[in-house]
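3.2 Worked example (two chains)
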Amino acid sequence: MMQWQVLTFDELDTRTLYSLLQLRVDVFVVEQNCPYPELDEKDLEPQSRHVLLRKGDKVIAYARVLAPNVSFAGYPGIGRVCVSQTARRLGLGRVLVERTLAVANELWPATDIYISAQCYLQRFYEDLGFRAASEPYLEDDIPHLQMIKYFQQTATA
C-alpha cells in the first residue's frame, strides 16, 4: 500500500528520515555519480516541508518545499525531487511535483515557485507549467537551469 505524507523535519521519525535520505543519496550521489553536500541544513528550516510517498517502510518518491529566501531570494522553492529507480515510469514524478506545488501554494498562496532543474528535465517541468528563467549553469557539475512556475499560470492551469 502506498501512502503520501507531508511532514516538517520534526515530524519525521528516524526510519522515515533514514529512508528519504537513502533515496536522495541513491539518486543524486550514486546514480548520478555526483558527490555533493547532501545535508545542507535546508531540511531543518521550520517552514520546510517534506513531501513523500511511502510504500511500506520505504520512501519511493520525495521532494522538499522550501520557504522564501532559503534557496531563492524572495521566493519559495522546491528541490530534491526524486523517484526510486524501482518506481519510475509509473507517472509518480508528475504526481509528486503536483503535490509539492500544492503544498507550496497552500503555504505561500499567490506566489511564484522556483526550482533549479537539471537541464535534461526541462521539458518535464515545462509540461507542469514551469518556464526557463536562466541560461544553463553548472550545479555540482551537472547542467541546471532556473525555472519558475508563475502564480498566474498556477491560477489558470
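3.2.1 Second chain
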Amino acid sequence: MSVSNFGDKRPPRQARTGTTSTGARKAASKSGRSRAREFALQALYQYLVGRNDATAIDTFTRDLAGFHKADSAHYDALLHGCIQTAESLDALIAPKLDRKMAEISPIEHAAMWIGVYEFQHCLDVPWRVVINECIELAKEFGGTDGHKYVNGVLNGLAPQLRAAEVAADKGDRGAPPAAPADPAEHTND
C-alpha cells in the first residue's frame, strides 16, 4: 500500500452530473449545435470588440481546440448570418433594452444576436431551446447576471418572432410537453 503526500485529506470527488458548479453544462454533455453556438459566440465577440474581418475571425475560430466537435454548418450560419444582419438584429433587440446598446456587454450582445437570428432563421429549433441555449452561453461566458438580461430580452421577442409557436405552447399549459423538434439539441455527440 502506497502512502500519498496528501494522507487522507484528498479533495472530495465532484458529482458526475451534466453541469458545472456555475450551472453551465459540461463539455461532454453538449451537442454539436451547442458547441457551434459557443464558437459563434466567441467569434461574434471578436467582431463586436475588435471589428475584425469575418473571414479572419472564421479562420481563427476553426483552428481552436474542439471545433471539430461543433456543427460547422450551424456555426457558419450563426457567424455570417449575425454579421450580415447585425443592423436588423439590433433594431429588434434595442426596444427591449433598458439601456443603450453600447452599454450592453459584448457577450450578452452576441448571445442575443444568436437568439434573434435563430428565432428568425432556424425554425427547426424550438423557441424555448433557443432561449435556453442563449442563457447557457451567457452563464458560461458572460457576467454574473447577464443570463437574466438575455433571458428577459429573448422572452420579450419570442412572441413577436415566433408568434404561432409561442401561442401554441402557452395555450397547452396543461398538456404534457411536446418532444423537441430538434433531437440533436438534447443528445450527446
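3.3 Remarks
Residues 32-50 form the longest helix (19 residues).
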